[in-house]
Amino acid sequence: MAKISFAKGRESIEVEAGTNLMQALTKAGVPVASSCKGKLVCGKCYIEVVEGSYNLSSASEEERDFMDLKDIPSGCRMACACQIEGDVCLDTPYW
Ligand code: FES
């Protein structure tokens, strides 16, 4: 299991380690912005990783290129493109 804590406003949740981050969050009832259903197209699902970035899977070349293209702030990950492997603290502007 892996714990996801939130920089503001939400109780921590426990999720299955190795799960896609977007799927883990939405399964736990935490909204993730998206209009492409996790296909790494819309650019809306980026999430700031406040702590524990080493507990997410390494960014693929596709994710890195996409983040450059969409001007995603550094310190963020595309929730639909990474797996959670351990404890992290996350934030978005809409939580
Ligand atoms: S859900 Fe659209 S880019 Fe991640």
Please give a structural write-up:
The chain has 95 residues and is of the alpha+beta class. The protein has one domain (2-91): Ubiquitin-like (UB roll). 18% of the residues lie in helices and 26% in strands. The model has no long low-confidence stretch (mean pLDDT 97). FE2/S2 (inorganic) cluster binds next to loops. The site of FE2/S2 (inorganic) cluster has 11 residues, from loops.
Structural class: alpha+beta
Q: How many distinct helices?
A: 2
Bound molecules: FE2/S2 (inorganic) cluster
Rg on CA atoms, Å: 12 Å
Q: Give the SSE order as H and E letters.
A: EEEHEHEEE
Q: In angstroms, what separates the terminal alpha carbons? A: 23 Å
* Coarse morphology: globular
Q: Specify the biggest β-sheet.
A: 5 strands, mixed
Number of E-type strands: 7
Q: Fill in the CATH topology.
A: Ubiquitin-like (UB roll)
SSE order and pairing:
Layout: E1 2-6, E2 13-15, E3 19-20, H1 21-27, E4 46-51, H2 61-70, E5 76-78, E6 83-84, E7 88-91
Parallel strand pairs: 1-7
Antiparallel strand pairs: 1-2, 3-6, 4-5, 4-7
The structure holds FE2/S2 (inorganic) cluster.
Question: Would you kindly provide a brief summary of this structure?
Answer:
The protein is 18% helix and 26% strand. It is of the alpha+beta class and 95 residues long. The structure holds FE2/S2 (inorganic) cluster.
List keywords for this structure.
binds FE2/S2 (inorganic) cluster, two-stranded antiparallel ribbon, 2 helices, 95 residues, 5-stranded mixed beta sheet, globular, alpha+beta, Ubiquitin-like (UB roll), 26% strand, 18% helix
